[in-house]
Design brief:
It contains three helices and twelve strands, in the order H-E-E-H-H-E-E-E-E-E-E-E-E-E-E. By secondary structure, the protein is of the alpha+beta class. The termini are far apart.
Length: 208
């Protein structure tokens, strides 16, 4: 293997030498002829340490295995901040506060819990910032549909942990979120009552 490698290098150098001789001869002939051929300048080959016509540089680079463009440049835009337009897929973003009634493929309100916990779900409040996400699901208690139920789920992005709160309203029937102001949610019940719930303090008030 070493002998073949040594021969390949010698063959390449020999071919390079022939090309250089031909190129220089062509340059000399062009000078002698005068106006017959115009020259394009010379460059110095860094590996061989010899001066060659500029228009032969690409041929010599091909022989030496150098395919890098001599004029290749990097834009200042590429080097200033290459990640300027990139946003990590898992970077948390703010979620504007809103009350929604998203349904699943069956047309039922989409909630991440079984009917045994929350039945007859009505709607959902959602709000989040770059540190946490809070959802409050409204409906009836899965153990006793005559009672109203609010379920608050808060997820913390830094740890992946969460808190879940179950707020039961006896005899109210299914609860429906109606509005919110800051961290206070307002709701009505199937039995005709109204109430409020604070997502920061978990304080609930209800008037039948």
């Amino acid at each position: 293997m070493r002998l073949l490698s040594w021969r390949s290098r010698n063959q390449r150098r020999a071919l390079l030498a022939i090309l250089v001789v031909c190129a220089v001869s062509g340059l000399g002939a062009a000078v002698l002829v005068g106006q017959a051929t115009s020259t394009t300048g010379t460059v110095t080959d860094p590996e061989q340490g010899i001066v060659i016509p500029a228009d032969k540089e690409a041929d010599i680079q091909d022989i030496e295995g150098d395919t890098t463009s001599p004029n290749e440049t990097v834009s200042s835009i590429d080097t200033a901040n290459p990640d300027a337009d990139l946003t990590p897929d898992d970077a948390p973003t703010s979620v504007p506060a809103a009350i929604t009634s998203d349904t699943d493929s069956s047309g039922d309100l989409a909630v991440p819990m079984s009917d045994a916990i929350l039945t007859n779900p009505t709607n959902t409040y959602e709000q989040g910032d770059t540190t946490q996400l809070t959802d409050v699901y409204a409906g009836a208690d899965g153990q006793d549909p005559n009672d109203g139920l609010l379920v608050q789920v808060t997820i913390y992005y830094d740890t992946g942990d969460g808190d879940t709160y179950y707020m039961n309203v006896p005899g109210a029937g299914a609860l429906t979120l109606t509005s919110f102001s800051g961290s206070t949610l307002y709701f009505s019940s199937a039995s005709g009552g109204t109430g409020s719930f604070n997502t920061s303090t978990q304080q609930l008030s209800y008037s039948p």
